[in-house]
Structures are given as C-alpha cells and as structure tokens.
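re: the backbone from monday

yeah here it is again, tokenized this time
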C-alpha cells in the first residue's frame, strides 16, 4: 500500500467512525503533512482519493469537508406474500431471539433496542430516585386503570406534533406497546378472524395473532411507500378482514414511511369497507428531520383508528411504558386492559411524565436522532462495502433499524448458525413473516455506538453471506 493510500484509509476510517462527521471541515493539507509526516503532494493525493470516492469535497478558500454518504442505489424488493390468510408460525425463532437479548457473550447486531448510554437519558435516573423519596410508599399503590393523568396529559401534548388532537381521556397507558397491540387485537377480533398486515411485519404482533387464533393476511409492501393500497383493496373485496394492522412510520423492519397522502387514502379505504385500523407508531418520534410525519390517526374523524405507541424505542424498553388511543373502542379496550395486566406499574409512568414535562424528552430525541442519522450512513456504508454485491438496503428517515436483502441463496437462519461460532447474532428475516418468508433478509441495529468491533462483526456477517452465496453457486455449476 502506498503512503497516500494509508493516509486516505485512516481519514476514511475516521469519517466512518464519526470522528469527522458529515459537514465537518477536515484537517488542512498542512495539518495532514504534520500528523502523518508526509509531503504536501502525498496529502493532496490522499484527499483526491477520498474525493473520487465521494466521501469528501473541496470548497475554494475553505478547505475539505465530509460529504453525506450516498443514498444506496438498491432498495429491498417489494414483498410478494401469499394471497390468502395464514396461521402464523415462527414462535420458536422468536423465542430464540428474545432469549438471546440477555446473552452478553454474543454481539447482538439485530436487536430492537435504542442506545441507552446517552447522557441525555441521565435525568431520568435522577427523576426516578427523586420519586422514590417524594412518593414515600404511594408509588407502590395501584394506578388508575387508564394510567397516570400526568402522563396522559404529556402524551396528548406530544401527539399534537403528529397531527393528532387527543384529550388525555382518549389515552390509556399500557405495559409497553406490545400490550397496546394485544388489547387492540382482542378488542376487535374473535378467534378465527382475519387481520391484514404489512409484510414484512413486526414479529411481536404476528405472535399476538398466533396466540389469539387469528389469521394473518400479508399484503405486498413497498420499501418506499409501504402497504400496497391496491392489493389491500382487492383483499378487502375478497376476505372478511376484521382489522388492518400497520406500522406506517419508520416501519420495523422495512424502514419506509408511508407518504401522508397514502396514509389518508388508507384511512379512506378502511372507512369505505368499514374496517378498523391498528396503527403502530412506536418509532414515530425518532424523526431525523422535523416536523415528524403525521399519523393515520390524525385523519381519523370517526374513531376507527387504534393508535399504539410508547416510550420503549425513544426512552427505554425496561420501563414498559406504552400507550393506546383506542378511538371509539375505548370501553371494550379498557375491559381488555383490565383482564390483561390491570393498571400498569405506577412509578415508571410518573418518571416518564416528569421526564417529558421538564423538556428532557425532546432534548433526548434531538440528540439521539442526530446520532442515529449519522450512524445509519455509517452502517449503510459498511453493508455496501462488506455484503455481497447487489444487496438491497433500506433507507430509513428515522429510527435505528436497517433491513438488508441478500441474494436468495443466503438463508439467514443458517447464517446465524455460522455466526454463532463467531459470537455474533443478527435478526433473521423469516421472523417477520407469518410463514417464514424473507429467509434471505436480516435486520441490523445501528443505535449502538459504532465501534471498530462492530464494524468487524458486520464485515464477518458480509463475508459469511458471500461464502454461502458462492457455495450455492458452486453447487449449481457442478
Ligand atoms: C413495531 C414495534 N411495535 C411494538 C413493539 C413492542 O414495544 P414494547 O417493547 O413497548 O412492548 C416493538 C418492539 O420491538 C416494535 O418494534
């Protein structure tokens, strides 16, 4: 390797690890000469290489600047699920994923957890400690069944940013968003009913369908615009669909956000066929640019949208603070809440209410989303570099989850078996389908601080995926 390639490599690494961030001015040519002990022409050649790679740009009389990384050219393909309602399988795999969450001996690249190490989260610990002192033993008492009025007040205030005018009494606090989803489904359906879902779809919701004896009708979904309204309309004509369940904003796992006009059209379609919508908005506040996208609920003028959300992805999943705005289904939903967990835990609700009321939540969101956006670009650049050529990569505008579609030869459950020997784990795509489709897809988390160790692990995933592709190709040739 020549000297200028070495210098370019080091600067590239610093860009990828966020030491030099998008928009930052890079050290001057003179500073590079001093740091690396190289000549002016070597330093200039190193920067020229980085300009050729579209990583940096030079501005006359200003110096060299880090460019935003390029939008990936290949997105995952539009899903083509089965055209009929199915029983949900995959519980064993979901259980395995849930069990690995506490396996410290493995690097869990696919988990759905936000970064809990940011300083902007610290005030929450203080608030919790203060509450213990202040509340004496009151925090140990049952809360209202619909949850803390203080917290519901704050949620109603926050919901304005998604275009929703909710009264605190329109909201009930749940034990995580998972409970909000389960209550919604139980409120609307009986065993044997059909629920239309986007595809791929969050495995937690799929497992509620399974446990409740419901059938999933997976609707083709576009990685940019979300659930196909055309396919959904045909399905509504053909099947007795009781509810439509979607995650239209920063979808987990596909990353898309439905354009506002399509959200409104989805609502109108549901109205035409008189079906309820269960909208999961758990990632909605993690927008990289403001204002955050509107919810489908913001178009709801007859109460048919049950909006499910919570603080697991923005603040911390261990608090188990979720919420549900059940629209016109409030009475039945409250009953389902009662038979599910009764009132939710009191102290975490009060802590989150204070965290939001004092402005810490918005400050924390501003900080985390800046980090996540930068880390998205770094993770994408690693996937582009280390994964098999032509891999489809999502391009989320919020949240912290990336969806990668590998060549069909790669089965990500088998990939995980090989990765286990290197103490690495990814979330295999088949978790996100009723019947184990998306075997060649996987989900990666970029909320972690992206260290060289993580880069090495991503590289290993890419190398093993390439190895599997080549094995299948070789077998085909023989
Ligand atoms: C789309 C989606 N909805 C709901 C949940 C469940 O959230 P909670 O941990 O608040 O129950 C998750 C968690 O991974 C999720 O990704």
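seq for it, each position gets an aa:
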């Amino acid at each position: 390797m020549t000297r200028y390639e070495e210098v370019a490599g080091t600067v590239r690494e610093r860009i990828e690890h966020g030491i030099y961030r998008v928009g930052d001015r890079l050290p001057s040519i003179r500073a590079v000469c001093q740091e690396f002990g190289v000549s002016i022409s070597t330093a200039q050649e190193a920067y020229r290489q980085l300009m050729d790679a579209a990583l940096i740009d030079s501005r006359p009389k200003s110096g060299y600047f880090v460019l935003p990384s390029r939008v990936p050219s290949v997105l995952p393909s539009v899903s083509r699920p089965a055209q009929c309602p199915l029983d949900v399988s995959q519980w064993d795999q979901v259980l395995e994923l849930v069990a690995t969450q506490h396996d410290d001996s493995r690097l869990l690249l696919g988990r759905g957890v936000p970064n809990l190490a940011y300083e902007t989260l610290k005030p929450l610990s203080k608030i919790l400690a203060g509450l213990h002192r202040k509340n004496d033993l009151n925090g140990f008492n049952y809360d209202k069944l619909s949850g803390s009025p203080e917290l519901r007040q704050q949620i109603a205030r926050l919901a304005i940013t998604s275009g929703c005018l909710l009264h605190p009494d329109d909201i009930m606090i749940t034990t995580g968003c998972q409970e909000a989803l389960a209550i919604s489904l139980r409120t609307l359906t009986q065993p044997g009913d059909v629920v239309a879902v986007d595809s791929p779809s969050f495995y937690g919701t799929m497992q509620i369908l399974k446990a409740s004896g419901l059938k999933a009708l997976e609707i083709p979904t576009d990685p940019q615009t979300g659930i196909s309204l055309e396919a959904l309309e045909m399905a509504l004509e053909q099947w007795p669909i009781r509810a439509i369940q979607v995650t239209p904003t920063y979808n987990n796992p596909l990353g898309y956000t439905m354009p506002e006009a399509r959200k409104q059209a989805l609502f109108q379609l549901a109205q035409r066929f008189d079906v309820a919508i269960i909208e999961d908005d758990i990632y909605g506040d993690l927008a990289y640019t403001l204002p955050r996208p509107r919810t489908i609920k913001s178009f709801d003028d007859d109460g048919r949208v049950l909006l499910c959300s919570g603080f697991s992805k923005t603040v911390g999943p261990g608090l188990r603070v979720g919420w549900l705005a059940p629209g016109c289904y409030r009475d039945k939903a409250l009953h389902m809440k009662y038979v599910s967990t009764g009132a939710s835990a009191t102290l975490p609700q009060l802590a989150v209410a204070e965290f939001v009321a004092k402005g810490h939540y918005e400050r924390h969101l501003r900080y985390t989303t800046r980090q996540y956006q930068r880390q998205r670009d770094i993770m994408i650049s690693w996937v582009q570099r280390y994964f098999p050529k032509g891999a489809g990569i999502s391009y989320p505008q919020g949240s912290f989850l990336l969806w990668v579609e590998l060549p069909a030869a790669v089965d990500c459950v088998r990939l995980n078996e090989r990765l286990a020997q290197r103490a690495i784990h990814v979330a295999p795509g088949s978790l996100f389908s009723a019947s184990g489709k998306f075997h060649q897809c996987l989900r990666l988390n970029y909320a972690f601080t992206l260290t060289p160790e993580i880069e090495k692990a991503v590289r290993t995933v890419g190398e093993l995926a390439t190895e599997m592709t080549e094995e299948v190709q070789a077998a085909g040739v023989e």
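The pocket of pyridoxal-5'-phosphate is lined by residues 112, 176-178, 202, 204, 247, 252, 280, 282, 310, 312, 317, 322 (CB under 6 Å). DSSP finds 15 helices and 17 strands in the chain.
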